[in-house]
């Protein structure tokens, strides 16, 4: 039952994954935002459950791992051209930054620090996912 609930919760990131495919910069900005931070009821289950899943069963960790890999795969395809030689590590860095920024921005008691975390990470992510030149 827990595995089914986890699988269902992880499906909720579908719209974000679709946004990555069409506009990765906006997807990153939307994820690492005050709106996402404050909307706990609709937050990313990968970020919300990271600590719980780490203490879960092998089966729950496998379900979680599969979704994390799919996000890495999608992000890897969206990394800007100048980062092509390191796309997989850059994708891992980007998603780890997203998850960490949301978690930290929710946990700190200082609203200004929370905003600085989100803004600082968002600026770095936008550079990583800057638009690639279109082939004519």
State the low-pLDDT regions, or none. 132-136
Mean pLDDT: 85
CATH class: Mainly Alpha
CATH topology: Tetracycline Repressor, domain 2
Number of helices: 8
Number of structural units classed as domains: 1
Shape: globular
CATH architecture: Orthogonal Bundle
Cα gyration radius (Å): 15 Å
Number of strands: 0
* Percent helix range: over 70%
Protein name: Transcriptional regulator, TetR family
Organism: Caballeronia sordidicola
InterPro entries: Tet_transcr_reg_TetR-rel_C_sf (IPR036271)
Quick recap of the structure?
The chain has 136 residues and is an all-alpha fold. It has helices at residues 2-11, 14-22, 24-31, 34-38, 45-54, 58-78, 87-107, 111-128.
Describe the secondary structure blueprint for this structure.
Blueprint: H1 2-11, H2 14-22, H3 24-31, H4 34-38, H5 45-54, H6 58-78, H7 87-107, H8 111-128
Helix pairs in contact: 1-6, 2-3, 3-8, 6-7, 7-8
């Amino acid at each position: 039952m827990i595995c089914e609930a986890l699988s269902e919760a992880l499906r909720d990131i579908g719209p974000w994954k679709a946004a990555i495919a069409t506009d990765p910069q906006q997807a990153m900005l939307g994820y690492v935002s005050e709106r996402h931070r404050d909307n706990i009821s609709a937050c990313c289950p990968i970020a919300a459950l990271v600590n719980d899943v780490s203490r879960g069963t092998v089966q729950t960790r496998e379900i979680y791992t599969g979704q994390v890999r799919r996000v890495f795969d999608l992000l890897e395809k969206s990394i800007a051209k100048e980062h092509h030689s390191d796309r997989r590590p850059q994708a891992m860095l980007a998603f780890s930054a997203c998850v960490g920024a949301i978690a930290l921005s929710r946990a700190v008691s200082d609203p200004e620090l929370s905003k600085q975390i989100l803004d600082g990470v968002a600026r770095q992510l936008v550079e990583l996912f800057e638009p690639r030149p279109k082939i004519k």
